[in-house]
Amino acid sequence: MAKIHNFSAGPSILPQEVFQEASQAVLDFNGTGLSLLEMSHRSKEFVAVMDEARALVKEIYNLSDDYEVMFLQGGASLGFLISAYNLQGANKKGAYISTGAWASKALKEGKWVGEAVEVATSKPENYNHIPKNYVVGSDVDYLHYTSNNTIFGTQFHNVPEVNVPLVCDMSSDIFCRELDTSKFDLIYAGAQKNMGPAGATLYIAKKSLIGNSSANIPTMLNLKTHADKESMFNTPPVFAVYVSMLVLRWIKKTGLKQIGIMNKAKADLLYGEIDRNTMFKGTAAEEDRSIMNACFVLNDGLDESLTTSFLDMCKTANISGLKGHRDVGGFRASMYNALPLDSVQALVDVMKAFEIKYA
User: Can you name the residues that pair with 6 across neighbouring β-strands?
Assistant: First the structure.
């Protein structure tokens, strides 16, 4: 079978070695004679998986003992609500930076819990940049932002400097580079873009905030519920946690610094071609371009029918998942950790051939 170059925005590409080991676990997990899919989540074999996954997160991000790591369910869409509930303080007010569809949804969910104010937005420019020079007052309980915007191809390259607790949805760039986690009070991320398959959601929370919200939190949305039970309050997403553990092993082996270097190399290669090629132009402000999701469109004046022509050429070259989101159009190349550099080179080669054919 020919190699597929997978640029899907998520669920996304994972390391091949992870697929091999995970497939064996479906048939026989660690010689138990049972499939991982049928064994008890309370068994010592799976408890060991959960413990290792949580420990790997702490090790890779160099987290201090001040932090709790949890693997839960519901995706970032539930995380919008969980973060608002668990970060609410005496002000009953959260601040939000709106940089795309998911950040805007987080703001909407925050309003279910208390007052949620938008302190900065790039919506008038169709979210093509990261807002600068915004002010976060001392009358809010937290600042929430989305570190990477998959639909519009922008990314925070610096952590906001604020004097209030900081919460971040890192669903699409978790573990993509080195990070000073001490700046955050809460990080949450759906696994399905850079850490594992769909179904698991990672939470990294300061222990000092857990259980100290002023909100009346439903049991399943209270991080204390899950911290007290070490992510085992109810049946966890067993397979998703296991595969995430395997990916975390791969990240540890590769090294977060090296992963960051590789991701930058992939992004530099693709953006370099986007800027050089007369057929394309990027949609995000250059200084805010995402190293995870490169969004680009046909250059001004070109017939839109060429969009189909380019996607057909990509399909012939075994390039998958390149069609842009419906809110932006054009093309989106998602370059998550496990995507190899040669896949980006394959895309660049098609872009060059497309220019020769149609320019």
Answer: 320
